[in-house]
């Protein structure tokens, strides 16, 4: 995710799509199961799933006539890291070091 994740954020910011993402946190579900859990009707649900799929926030798996959806955990982790401004691998390697500001009273931190 080299560029700002604007499209991904737009995709997840919609109330219906956000509800679908929350439901999929429990694990892989087929469209009928998502419909039942979310209360979103089939035509609207298919449209919302299409947007999430295009943004690569969900993954699909087909089994016979059923399509199963699951969260794309890697993509969502990248999105979270982009929002928080951290590179997960880099931040794990370097310790956070505080340096005193010149000209400012610095107090000892008791922990």
Task: Give a description of the structure.
Keywords: DNA-binding, Transcription, Transcription regulation. There is one protein chain. With 111 residues, this protein is an alpha+beta fold. It has a single domain (6-84), classed as Orthogonal Bundle (Arc Repressor Mutant, subunit A), CATH 1.10.10.10. Helix content is 51%, strand content 13%. A three-stranded antiparallel β-sheet has the order 1-3-2. A hairpin with a 2-residue loop joins strand 2 and strand 3.
Estimate percent helicity.
40-55%
- How much β-strand is present in the residues? 5-15%
Order of helices and strands: HHEHHEEHH
Low-confidence stretches: none
Shape: elongated
Put simply, the count of helices is 6
Number of E-type strands: 3
Q: Looking at this structure, what is the CATH superfamily?
A: Winged helix-like DNA-binding domain superfamily/Winged helix DNA-binding domain
- Describe the largest sheet: 3 strands, antiparallel
Strand arrangement in the largest pleated sheet:
1-3-2
CATH topology value: Arc Repressor Mutant, subunit A
Rg is 20 Å
CATH domain class name: Mainly Alpha
Computed structural class: alpha+beta
- Oligomeric state of the chains? single chain
Question: Gap between N and C termini, in Å?
Answer: 37 Å
Task: Just name the CATH architecture.
Answer: Orthogonal Bundle
Count of the separate structural domains: 1
Region (Disordered): 87-111
Organism: Erythrobacter aureus
InterPro entries: ArsR-like_HTH (IPR011991), HTH_ArsR_DNA-bd_dom (IPR001845), HTH_MetalResp_TranReg (IPR051081), WH-like_DNA-bd_sf (IPR036388), WH_DNA-bd_sf (IPR036390)
Domain HTH arsR-type: 1-91
């Amino acid at each position: 995710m080299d560029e700002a994740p604007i499209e991904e954020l737009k995709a997840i910011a919609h109330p219906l799509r956000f509800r679908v993402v929350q439901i999929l946190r429990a694990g892989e579900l087929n469209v009928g199961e998502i419909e039942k859990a979310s209360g979103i009707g089939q035509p609207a649900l298919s449209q919302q799933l299409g947007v999430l799929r295009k943004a690569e926030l969900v993954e699909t798996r087909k089994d016979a006539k059923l399509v199963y959806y699951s969260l794309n955990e890697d993509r969502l982790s990248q999105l979270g890291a982009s929002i928080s401004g951290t590179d997960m691998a880099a931040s794990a390697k370097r310790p956070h070091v505080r340096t005193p500001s010149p000209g400012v009273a610095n107090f000892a931190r008791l922990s």
